[in-house]
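Backbone-to-sequence.
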């Protein structure tokens, strides 16, 4: 009795395995995209922010208006004339799962108003699925509502002296009358008190 054993070369075996893996990957790709879309919709940062702020599926465990923030603006980034805009995107705080950027310094000239130096801050928290913390100018109330609080910074010259600046702001947007910075030789330091450190957890 003759027995014939067919032999396959290693190249052919690897080719079959490669084709099989490629076929499986091709079949799984739509499923992975669908899964990613579902998770993105359910757990994206914007969705989690909405749920945490509205306390829907999350609860605020503590909040403390105790975060201090100070940063210096270099004199070369203080606008001297209309139209000057500096887009800095400089990190000035990076703790408690939150980055705060000195985003923009610009000469602001609204209609029928005086010239101002406009300073914009950008808050960029990272929300965690289980529990975490973030820094904000938002205060959470007992009835599950929330509101923003206006924080007025103090201004200091490079020699440490307090600058008598009267401004208008909403914590993240500061407007300094341009004439109040005239003659400033160096930079200016802004010091905030009492940003809110919020802690939360999933219910």
């Amino acid at each position: 009795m003759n027995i014939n054993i067919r032999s396959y070369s290693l190249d052919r075996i690897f080719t079959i395995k490669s084709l099989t893996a490629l076929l499986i990957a091709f079949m799984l790709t739509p499923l992975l995209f669908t899964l990613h879309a579902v998770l993105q919709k359910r757990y994206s940062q914007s969705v989690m922010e909405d749920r945490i702020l509205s306390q829907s599926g999350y609860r605020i465990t503590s909040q403390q208006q105790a975060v201090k923030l100070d940063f210096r603006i270099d004199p070369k980034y203080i606008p001297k004339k209309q139209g000057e805009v500096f887009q800095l995107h400089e990190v000035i705080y990076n703790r408690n799962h939150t980055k705060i950027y000195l985003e923009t310094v610009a000469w602001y000239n609204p209609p029928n108003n005086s010239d101002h130096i406009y300073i914009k801050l950008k808050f960029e928290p990272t929300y965690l699925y289980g529990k975490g913390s973030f820094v904000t100018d938002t205060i959470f109330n007992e009835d599950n509502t929330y509101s923003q609080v206006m924080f007025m910074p103090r201004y200091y010259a490079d020699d440490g002296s307090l600058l008598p600046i009267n401004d208008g702001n909403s914590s993240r947007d500061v407007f300094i009358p341009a004439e109040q910075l005239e003659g400033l030789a160096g930079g200016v330091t802004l010091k905030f008190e009492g940003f809110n450190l919020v802690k939360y957890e999933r219910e």
